[in-house]
Amino acid sequence: xxxxxxxxxxxxxxxxxxxxxxxxxxxxxxxxxxxxxxxxxxxxxxxxxxxxxxxxxxxxxxxxxxxxxxxxxxxxxxxxxxxxxxxxxxxxxxxxxxxxxxxxxxxxxxxxxxxxxxxxxxxxxxxxxxxxxxxxxxxxxxxxxxxxxx
Length: 150
Hints:
The protein has helices at residues 2-20, 62-65, 136-141; strands at residues 69-71, 77-86, 92-98, 107-112, 117-119, 128-130. By secondary structure, it is an alpha+beta fold. It has a domain at 62-141: PRC-barrel domain (SH3 type barrels).
């Protein structure tokens, strides 16, 4: 026990000067975080910590959209985002998995990204992906989306 205490004291004594000499990095001038603005140019409050999808500059993170549940405007879950695809005409498609259990038996459909909405974080609920007017039945009735096979 005494040996362990001595070794611990020695380790702290050796590490303390090294930690004391660690330089503090200063932010690089001109690289400040961008200000979030709306279409009129007015500043918006910075996104909350629970905000997973939106960035401080008002952009959206694809990695956080993929895998998100999709809700309609009545707060009913209608599917989940399986992928984001850039179409040949460079428009963005949201690939939604509809129905099934744990992804088994789900139908895959594609919806233009501009039909989607991202609801802001509220309380302990983060952002939500919303497809207004959608129902699970309407999405299931859409043509299936298939990835190209090479």
